Structures are given as C-alpha cells and as structure tokens.
Amino acid sequence: MESETLDQSLNLTASCIYSDRRSISGVADVEQHVDSSLESECLTTKDDLALKKKSQETGPHLDGRCIYLVGMMGSGKTTIGQILSQLLHGYSFFDSDKLVEEAAGGATVADIFKLHGESFFREMETEVLRKLSRMYRLVISTGGGAVVEPINWKYMHKGIIVFIDVPLEVLARRITSVGTTSRPLLDHGYSDSYVKTLRQLSMLGKERSEAYNNAHVRVSLENMAAKLGQEDACHITPTQIAIEALVQCKSYLKKECNNVHLL
Question: Whose CA, among 32, 162, 215, 230, lies 20 to 30 Å from 209?
Fold first, then answer.
C-alpha cells in the first residue's frame, strides 16, 4: 500500500514537472522564464548575482542529472536544495522525507519511527530514492540517515551527490534552538540541551563519517568560513553554500569529462 501511494505521489509530481516544461518551449523561453522569476524575487545582492551566474555556468554541465544533497540533520539541505532548484534551468525540488511521509498517509517522520520503527522508515526511504533515481532534472534533499544504507548510494550515484559538511557544534546550536521532537534519533525524552544534542550528533557523525566519503562533492562550511575570514561557520548563508555547491559540482563534472576523454 505504501509503495502504491508513493508511486501516485511521484507520478503526480512528475506530471506537474513535465507539464510545466512543455509550457516553456525552447532554451530562450526557459532563460526568460528563469530571469523573470529571479527579478520577481529581487535578487540584487552580490551573493544572489553570483549564485545566478554560477547556476548558468554549471547547469549545462549537469546534462539533466539529478543533484542529491546529503548531510547530517539540520545541515540545511532542504533550504539549499530549494535555492538550487529555483536557479537551475528546468530543475524541480524533492524532499525525500516528505515523500516518505506522504506515502505513510501523512504521518511525520517522528511518528513513523514511533509506530513502525526505524527499519520500516529506512525501507520506505530506499524505495523513494529508487524511484527518484529514474527521474531527471531534480534537486533532492535526502534524510540525514539515508547514507547508512549502501543500496541508497547505488541509486544516488546516478546523479551528483553533494555532501553538506557542517561542524557539529553549529548543528547542535541550530537543532537545540528549535527542539529535537521532530528528530527521532535525537529525541529520547531528554531536555533539549546543547550538550546532550552535541553528544548525540557526535555519535551519529562517527557512524556516518565513512559513508560520506562516497559523495562526489564535499561542501565544507569550516573551509568556507576560513576562506571568507569568518570565525564562526554559523554565519554562512544558504545562498553562499549553494554557490559553493555549484562551484564544486562544476569542478567535479569537468574532471569527470576529462577522465572520459582520456579513456
């Protein structure tokens, strides 16, 4: 039943995506459509203009491949994914956790964990990624634990995998500020203290650190802060992270292309 619901959800969203694309004919029309969207959002800051330029430079190199964002919970994958999908021509956004929730009849991730357990959730998550891997021109925000299942990497490797690497201290501050009730792997009935959240994140980080090496691209907020002359990575904006993700993606795709030519 969950698979049926998931199919319906994905098919409906895919139909909407393809319908939107059919209504925009030709590259010139696509560019005009994106430009008018950007103007309506008043993208006038230096970072916004840099983001627009990087998206135009990187888009053609992607050749329609999906972008999968991986990283710890609270790393900003959803926000960054939405920014990228709005700027990349013809791309749409998916949140894999939201798709699992829809397939489970609207239950939240936390409720699914409580009612059915983590293994049930992971099975549904894998099914979501399997179906998404058949599609094109998507930016996909994955759940924090998606990286623990090797089969998920097989599906995600059909696209470009971007690891958003945020210092644990920054993650702990973010999550503590909003509470942990929506984070089933962190919420164990404790008070939402920074120290306890950081301890739990450190344990999860150790378990997943090796898995993150499977990503094609790593966007390190610690490295970004050093380059920008900032003492704290928490001040880096989602727009700046999206710019760095596009820079890293373009660099990876160029290397990939050069390697193909050498064969």
Answer: 230
